[in-house]
Each structure stands twice: as structure tokens, then as C-alpha cells.
Amino acid sequence: MKKIGVIGGSGLTSLKQLQITHREVVNTPYGEASAPLTHGRMGNLELLFLPRHGSGHNIPPHRINYRANIWAMKELGVEQIIGFATVGGITQPPQAMVIPDQLIDYSWGREHTFFDGEDGQVAHVDFSSPYCDELRNTLTTAALNAGIDIVTEGVYGVIQGPRLETAAEINRLQMDGCDIVGMTALPEAALAREKGLCYATCAIVVNWAAGKGDGPITQELIDAHLKVAIETKGRLLQHIK
Fold first, then answer.
1. Domains, the chain, ranges and CATH?
2. Helices 219-238 and 133-145, interaxial angle, to 10°?
3. Is-contact 30 65, C-beta < 8 A?
4. Is 44 buried (19+), middle (13-18) or exposed (0-12) by CB count in 10 A?
5. pLDDT at position 120 over 70
């Protein structure tokens, strides 16, 4: 049975198709992961799920212990990780599902590497193509089989958060080539690369980014798209082979 790690929002554990077997606390050299890891099954998949913002969605993006999260996944034998993300749309509209192929990092101050020099080891991993093409292709095929419209490439701009962006900042990101904007893809993707894990982001747009829509960004609008996003993620996971 294929074992896949899933890092995302806490709502995924409520999927009716997910059969939860048990939860496990993993001690790491970097402290506690965001939450106990949930073991479950969905179809032919064995899933190891971790809500990156904590069980109660109470950890802001800049305070997530990304190193502990990735280390725990590796320790439990995961080889592939799907990083689900809800994002703002710069060139893509709300409810679009995007499998990005590139990243630009605008965050700062995060513990972003396992090679921090404390153990005397330094390495420089190749990050030219930050995502695993094998897993990106798997996600694309699953989406097509599930009848989900999908955008198969794009640039994810990672901002610090937790506040949303100004319209001027979004204009800058667009000039830099970003198609979507979010707060969590880095250092998550880079840490996975350092651990030799196959990692890909599946991003669902839940609002137009600042200045791209017709009005202000409201939590009510985001929540409405989030509800659809959770159902879409469940359909996608069911069709992964």
C-alpha cells in the first residue's frame, strides 16, 4: 500500500472517505511537530496527515516548526509529501487548483534548513526545480481522473504573513512572475528536498489577491471557498494511484 504524507489544514481529517487508524506523537531533534500525526487510509493509500497550523489552527505561518514537521514525516517512513495550501490568486481565480512548478521566497526569519552548521555539516542542495515532477504528475493525473479542472504549472510567491498583502505588494509579485501567493510553501519544500523527500504543492485559490478582485477580502468569502476546497481535496486524494 502506497504511503503518502499530507500536510495541510485541519479540515482534511473530517473527510468521510478517510478511515483514521491512530494518532502518533513523534519526538524530533527540533522540538514538537505542529500536532500529533494522524495515520489513516483512503482507498489504496496509506496517509500520514499533519495539520501544519496545529490541531486547532492556532499556529501562524511564521511560527510553524517546519523542521520538526518534515523530520517527523521522514522518521515515519514517508517518501512523498503533498503540501495542500489555500492561496490568493494573482493570475488564477478563486477555486482554481494549481500544481505550481516554481517558488519565490519573500519570507524571513524562519528556521529554513537542517544544515545550520550546529552539527558540523553543511550542504547545498540543488533547488533549481523545487518540486518533485513525479508527484506533480501523479496529482495532475488524479485531478483529471476526478474531473477536477487543474492548472499544471505556476509560480507560488511565499510571503511572511500572517497579514494579507497590500495591492502594491501584489503588483510587485506579479511583476516578479508570481501566479499565486501564500505563506507556507517555504521552507517546507526546501526542507523536504534536504531530506530527500518527493514533495509537491497542491494549491487551491480561495480569494483574489489584494487589488485583483472587485472588493475587499473578507473571511466570509474565504470560508465559502474553503468549504468547496476541502471537498475538492478529498476527491483528488481518492483518485491517487
1. 2-238 (3.40.50.1580)
2. 90
3. yes
4. exposed
5. no
19-24/155-158 β-pairing: unpaired
Cell 494511484 sits at which residue?
241
pLDDT one-digit tens code per residue, 207-224:
999 999 887 777 777 777
Separation between Cα atoms, residue 11 and residue 29, nearest integer Å: 28
Question: Which residues are bridge partners to 49 per DSSP?
Answer: 6, 38
Whether residue 5 contacts residue 80, with contact meaning beta carbons closer than 8 Å, is answered with yes
Beta-bridge mates of residue 4: 47, 80
On the CB side of 206, CA atoms within 13 Å amount to 23
Q: Indicate the residue type of 34.
A: S
> What are the pLDDT digits (tens) for 171-211?
999 999 999 999 999 999 999 999 999 999 999 999 999 99
